[in-house]
Design a protein that fits this description.
alpha/beta, Rossmann fold, four-stranded parallel β-sheet, binds 4-nitrophenyl phosphate
């Protein structure tokens, strides 16, 4: 199973989701069953490490984002990944506009897995520290829900 998190710049929300979700997969014993990556819609930050504010906030919760580097959404991603999970409605619109008709990937808002089918992870880039904490809270909740869904799909549900 392969999961791709998508935001606008790939330096705040989606790398945070990649790091948090990867850690939860480790804790759930699913690290070998699920591959994780993240990317951005826009080109501005390609090759850069996550925003220092995102790195610091994640580090306070024990998640290291320092090794990640931004990249842009690629046409091949629609075939490489089973899930393309958007952080907000603009990201979702941009992904759907590029989606080839023969891609089988699930394309949806990430917070659907936190029980919020129409809610976005707010863009923290132009705001303060609190925005990064809210991003982490939302991403941790949605990651827990996504683990439950993937566990069901992988046929490894609790006995
Ligand atoms: P992200 O945040 O989409 O969560 O990575 C942003 C990063 C950069 C910009 C916007 C949002 N920007 O306009 O450069």
């Amino acid at each position: 199973m392969r999961v791709l998190f998508v935001c606008l710049g790939n330096i705040c929300r989606s790398p945070t989701a990649e790091g948090v979700f990867r850690r939860q997969l480790d804790e759930a014993g699913l690290a070998d069953a699920v591959a994780v990556d993240s990317c951005g819609i826009g080109p501005w930050h390609v090759g850069k490490a996550p925003d220092p504010r995102a790195q610091a906030a994640a580090r306070r919760r024990g998640v290291d984002l320092s090794g990640l580097r931004a990249r842009q959404l690629d046409d091949e991603d629609f075939y490489r990944f089973d899930y393309l999970l958007a952080m907000d409605h603009d990201n979702l619109t941009a992904i759907e506009a590029r989606r080839p008709p023969d891609s089988d990937a699930v394309v949806t808002l990430f917070l659907e897995y936190a029980g919020h089918p129409d809610r976005a992870v707010p863009d923290p880039y132009f705001g303060g520290e609190q925005g990064f904490e809210e991003v982490l809270d939302l991403i941790e909740a949605a990651s827990r829900g996504l683990i439950v869904t993937l566990r069901d799909r992988l046929g490894e549900g609790a006995p």
